[in-house]
Design brief:
Number of strands: 31
CATH class of one domain: Mainly Alpha
Strand order of the largest sheet: 3-4-5-7-6
Strand content: 5-15%
Number of helices: 36
Distance between the termini: 83 Å
Length: 1063
């Protein structure tokens, strides 16, 4: 059968240019591709690729030099009946043996004819075993579809689905007529099968010829016996294929040795090993080395054995060595060192695949904001090397650790892969399942047993610190020792391999196999991830497509001392990088300092401790929240503690060029995964971001004594006084950032970071920040910007899908009423009414009243952050200013629904969210929370404030009853591990203290006073054990700024009550 022109790809076709110009409108003819790729991509391809244009228009085409193929193999009945089945199929009971056996036999004959030197008779079988999965990946779905088609047309005979499958395989598939039909219908399948066979034969021939020529030299260098030269078995599919099907192969030799063939140089491993040996020897540790014979285009590498440590001392040294290697990889910016790339060889961690010798650092000239700089700091930190625990997630939020430390076998991979279901029957089909990770050799063992890596955090940090300090003390020598790196090459990962793999799998769908143009267009999907206005990536995408069409994972590299990018086939993309890898490395050496060392140690601590979910569990203890009393606040200690937090903010701030912007990095919930945590750059808003930090800094600055007061009379430490000017500078920077943000939003409402309107997360929180700054400073500029941002806010009311206090229109109502209170301008009250009326139309009516259900909730809930206490606060305050009866009725219904969640047994309002809160014993799941966000604390706060707005007798009696309940519950609640405002002790104390002051309850006030004094002392002297997610979070509601603000408000009650959105 001849070659079908439709098997050719668009780059191999040409059409009449005049015909193309005559046709313009392609949207009807190419609607599928417009939908898949988008208008921008299609328009770019049409204007820059004539073949794409003609393909979309269906214009006839020609091809030059039709492929000179070997004859496409045909099955026969003898093959179908198993008489001459290839062993690779017979032994593994693979599907459709009648189809695959002739392909495998043809491939083996080609291999034998291309390599005539003596070899083990089993090697062709090894070759077939590795080739078969690749052939199946190309064609199996087409065969399954055709079998289903035959079944639908009643062509299959048999009493069972298994007999029907046998009939298809034995009677239909082996016929010449059906095979011609198959190759004709799926010409791309036929071509890909042929190309794969040819490329595999070429690669194996290359490997066997190299072995034949070099085995004597290898045996001599490795000092092996003559039996070493005989190959017993070859195994593959150990890594991705690049550059025309080349990949890593493992050779088992007659003397028992195992050797890896790598189709690349191992120069990077050699240089790395020399640097590692220098660091090891500097701290008194020895090095494990393994044989690597580098032939330039390829290498022969000795297998590294995997075995246990024999003693705890060896295991501790293992993790110390991990720390040293962590520093070296951090220095060289070597990434992608996940669990498959490390072997725990006793007390030696050995990295076995270093395709990157010197990682390319991102150019600093491209950074536009402090936020981007924060992200870059994280990307170039120890966190993203792949050595420390690192999670990958799927859309459902399930994830696994793939880091070299802690990555283990039998984890359910969060991405589905194709799997053949109901094999051996006529109902055989492809379905997607979650696979499980295979057995790795990355886990360090003690006498065969794994011990949690978290127990060796100190050893990891010890090794990292020692290596870092060696580099600090010897920067000049280090600069000389990295000299050999300048002549090397490093791999550059343009996209994750998973992305390429998914595209390749999709490209073998039967619909794609009918025309080479379809497969070509599918791969152009990569343009969607490219900035179409920038031409820098366009030629790279074309090269990616070229590799994918060959069935390869695209491979790119750079020379460490050049700025060009190169493809595996030698194409150069000049000036691709802003700087060379060596320039980046030399700059990295300059940047090494003690502050960076401290930061990286914090990151290591977080990553290793994250292996244990208990670390982040905000459980209740046994100690009462309030018990002892103090009559006087310790002003000196409180100011010193608040100053300590201020100094921490100043020390950890990340500045953009010329200090025009500031940002911070905080530990926050990972939005991609369930129960996951991630270090992130903070956002702009009040809850965890810049607005909350700005509030605390300004509040702190208002209580700092005037510079005219002698230092000895000030209640601040000398260290903080030096920080004073830094904080004032920070406050000015943050103010200017927010002013510019408001101005931008006035010009273009779409320029805001989010359409959310809430008082803590959303544009409402920006307006509220301005209002609070005006209250605590008295500066008119903040009032003006509060007005300007409040004028922006109503544009988003109609887009609100959150509804609640935190992110939605309930929060906006409170912010607008605050604005009305400050200005007495009726338009702000009218805007509050607009938001409230919209909320009423979105309320969920129940038998017990009303509530609101955001996209994240299946039913209305209680509490302040997302539930009815927040809505109560909004409608009660608005009723005070409008006296509208429907708002009072809404208040009654809001109370009725929330009180339907009250549980007398626990004297608390149930938290009915899906995720349960863990109790103090950390095992039983309960539905009780006592915090600002959920439960009695937030209910108490809402009721106390609502009681001041409403005089209605019936509602007032309900409010007072709930206040009594909430107060009693809060007083009885024990301390939690957490101290933050949202769901920690300090938030609860702030609520209690506010209640005590409003109700003149001296006993509670004295108990809260004692707590604040203890809190301040613990912060100042470092004895307070903050949870990891609080200690490494600088934000208002879940971090240090909020804890500091509550302490300041204890001293200065005139500061606004932020938790109630008061001014």
């Amino acid at each position: 059968m001849g070659v079908d022109k439709k098997s050719y790809y668009l780059t191999e076709r040409h059409s009449n240019f005049l015909e193309i110009k005559e046709k313009r409108d392609l949207k009807d003819q190419a609607s599928y591709w417009y939908k898949l790729l988008g208008n921008d991509v299609i328009e770019y391809l049409i204007h820059n690729n004539i073949s794409v244009n003609s393909f979309l228009q269906g214009i006839p085409f020609e091809v030059d030099n039709l492929k000179s193929d070997f004859s496409l193999p045909y099955p026969n009945h003898a093959l179908a009946e198993g008489v001459f089945l290839n062993p690779a199929i017979k032994e593994n009971q693979q599907p459709f043996p009648a189809f695959y056996t002739p392909w495998l036999n043809t491939a083996e004959e080609l291999l034998k004819s291309s390599h005539s030197s003596p070899q083990n008779n089993d090697l062709p079988n090894d070759f077939a075993e590795l080739l078969l999965p690749k052939l199946q990946g190309i064609s199996l779905r087409c065969l399954i579809m055709e079998m289903h088609q035959c079944k639908q047309n009643n062509r299959l005979k048999g009493k069972t689905t298994a007999e029907e499958y046998q009939y298809f395989n034995n009677e239909i598939l082996p016929t010449r007529e059906f095979t011609d039909y198959l190759y004709g219908k799926y010409p791309v399948m036929a071509r890909e099968l042929q190309d794969t066979v040819e490329s595999e034969v070429r690669f194996w021939t290359e490997v066997l010829n190299h072995w034949q020529q070099e085995k004597g030299m290898i045996r001599a260098q490795m000092k092996k016996a003559p039996e070493f030269e005989e190959i017993v078995k070859i195994e593959g599919n150990l890594a991705d294929t690049h550059n025309n099907g080349r990949c890593v192969l493992q050779l088992s030799l007659r003397d028992g040795s195992k050797l890896f063939y790598k189709p690349r140089s191992t120069e990077n491993e050699q240089i790395y090993q020399e640097l590692l040996q220098w660091l090891y020897s500097s701290v008194g540790l020895d090095t494990y080395d393994y044989e690597r014979i580098d032939m330039g285009s390829h290498s022969w590498v000795e297998q590294v054995p995997y075995h246990s440590c024999a003693s705890m001392e060896e295991l501790k040294r293992y993790y110390q060595r991990i720390g040293i290697q962590l520093f070296l990889c951090y220095l060289l910016n070597i990434k992608d060192l996940h669990c498959e790339n490390i072997i725990a060889c006793g007390e030696y961690p050995v990295f076995i695949d270093l395709e990157t010798g010197v990682g390319m650092r991102a150019g600093r000239g491209q950074l536009k904001t402090a936020n981007e700089k924060c992200r870059l700091i994280l990307q170039e930190s120890v966190l993203y090397l792949g050595i420390l625990p690192i999670m990958i997630w799927n859309a459902a939020g399930n994830g696994i650790n793939v880091g070299a430390i802690g990555g283990r076998e039998n984890q359910q991979v969060p991405m589905k892969i194709p799997h053949i279901a109901e094999a051996g029957t006529s109902d055989m089909h492809v379905e997607y399942r979650y696979p499980r990770t295979k057995s790795y050799k990355n886990q360090a063992l003690l006498n065969g047993q794994y011990i949690d890596a978290g127990q060796f955090l100190g050893d990891i940090i010890k090794g990292f610190t020692k290596a870092y300090e060696i580099a600090l003390r010897n920067k000049q020598e280090l600069s000389k020792r990295i000299g050999p790196c300048s002549g090397g090459k490093s791999r550059y990962v343009v996209r994750q391999t998973q992305r390429y793999t998914m595209l390749l799998q999709s490209s073998y769908h039967p619909d794609v196999m009918t025309d080479g143009g379809n497969r070509n267009m599918l791969f152009y999907n990569l343009y969607q991830e490219t900035q179409m206005r920038s031409g820098r990536m366009h030629p790279v995408v074309e090269n990616e497509v070229k590799s994918l069409l060959k069935g390869d994972v695209p491979y790119f590299y750079y020379r460490n001392s050049e700025r060009s990018l190169f493809s595996s086939d030698g194409n150069e993309f000049p000036e691709f990088f802003e700087q060379t890898a060596m320039d980046g490395l030399m700059q990295k050496i300059v940047e090494l300092d003690n502050s960076d060392l401290k930061r990286q140690i914090q990151y290591i601590t977080f990553a290793v401790l994250s292996l244990d979910n208990q670390v982040f569990l905000n459980s209740y203890g046994k100690e009462a929240l309030i018990s002892h009393k103090a009559s006087v606040l310790d002003e000196t200690m409180i100011l010193r503690a608040a100053g300590h937090i201020g100094k921490r903010l100043a020390d950890t701030a990340v500045f953009h060029q010329n200090h025009s912007e500031a940002g911070w990095i905080s530990l926050m919930p990972d939005q991609r995964g369930k129960n996951g945590w991630e270090l992130q750059s903070v956002d702009r808003y009040l809850y965890n971001g810049l607005a909350g930090i700005n509030l605390f800094i300004h509040a702190l600055l208002t209580v700092i004594p005037e510079e005219s007061v002698p230092a000895k009379e000030r209640n601040f430490s000398e260290a903080f006084l030096k920080t004073d000017s830094e904080l004032r500078s920070l406050a000015e920077i943050l103010d200017q950032m927010f002013f510019a943000y408001t101005q931008s939003a006035e010009q273009d409402v779409n320029s805001t970071d989010t359409p959310n309107t809430g008082a803590f997360f959303g544009e409402g929180s920006i307006a509220y920040m301005y209002q609070v700054l005006y209250q605590i400073t008295g500066q008119e500029i903040y009032l003006q910007y509060a007005k300007r941002h409040c004028d922006i806010l109503p544009r988003f009311f109609g887009q609100d899908q959150s509804f609640d206090l935190l992110s939605g229109n309930a929060g906006a109502v409170l912010v607008m009423t605050d604005m009305f209170r400050l200005t007495k301008e009726e338009k702000y009250l009218a805007d509050a009414v607009t938001a409230a009326d919209l909320l009423l139309t979105q309320a969920e009516a129940t038998d017990q009243g009303i509530g609101w259900c955001s996209a994240q909730l299946k039913q209305p809930i209680g509490g302040m952050a997302h539930g009815n206490s927040g809505f109560l606060l909004a409608f009660a305050r608005l009723f005070r200013y409008t006296a509208r009866r429907d708002y009072l009725e809404a208040v009654g219904k809001i109370l009725r629904y929330e009180n339907s969640l009250y549980d007398e047994a626990t004297n608390n309002w149930k938290d009915i969210r899906e995720e349960a809160v863990l109790s103090e014993d950390m095992n039983a799941q309960v539905t009780e929370s006592v915090a600002w966000c959920h439960g009695a604390a937030g209910v108490l706060l809402g009721r106390v404030n609502a009681a001041a707005y409403i005089s209605d007798g019936d509602i007032q009696s309900i409010l007072q009853r709930d206040i009594t309940r909430g107060l009693e519950k809060l007083k009885q609640t024990p301390r939690r591990r957490g101290y933050c405002l949202c769901h920690g002790n300090t938030g609860n104390i702030g609520i209690l203290m506010d209640y005590a002051r409003k109700n003149k309850d001296q006993d509670i006030l004295m108990e809260c006073t004692c707590y604040v004094n203890e809190l301040a002392f613990g912060i100042y002297d470092g004895s307070l054990e903050l949870m990891l997610q609080e200690d490494q979070n600088v934000g208002l509601m879940t971090g240090l700024a909020g804890i500091g603000y509550v302490m300041l408000r204890a001293l200065h009650p005139e500061l606004p009550d932020i938790m109630a959105v008061e001014i």
